[in-house]
Design a protein that fits this description.
This protein is α+β, with helices and mostly antiparallel strands. Helix content is 28%, strand content 35%. The chain has 3 helices and 6 strands, in the order βαββββαβα. A 4-stranded antiparallel sheet has the order 4-5-1-6, covered by helices on one side. A two-stranded antiparallel ribbon has the order 2-3. β4 and β5 form a beta hairpin.
């Protein structure tokens, strides 16, 4: 089964606020209020997409989801590279795809 590897970086320089905002919008965020009394999750784009995160800035996704992810990256001025790859059994397990 084929998948797509996307390697990306967002040019933020020393602007940690921008980097943090990108990560929240892309991956989502576990958050709490009132000193941990209330816990909830702010959803990000990747909450809607099956993916395997290999290392920072490198993900493997289904070919059907490439457009959504690359559009998001372009909106955030990210530099990215896309490659078609063969999914390993581990990739399919992490992405909760049927193992053939």
């Amino acid at each position: 089964m084929k998948g797509v590897l996307i390697a990306f970086t967002v040019p933020t320089g020393k602007d940690r606020t921008r980097a943090s905002a990108f990560a929240k919008a892309f991956y989502g965020q576990e958050t709490s209020s009132h000193h941990g009394k209330y816990r909830y999750r702010r959803r990000g784009l990747m909450d809607e997409i099956s993916y395997n995160k290999l290392i920072r800035g490198v993900i493997i996704i289904r070919t059907d989801d490439v457009g959504r992810v690359t559009e998001f990256l372009e909106q955030h001025s990210a530099e990215y590279h896309v490659r078609v790859v063969e999914l390993t059994e581990r990739d399919r397990e992490v992405m909760e795809l049927s193992v053939e």
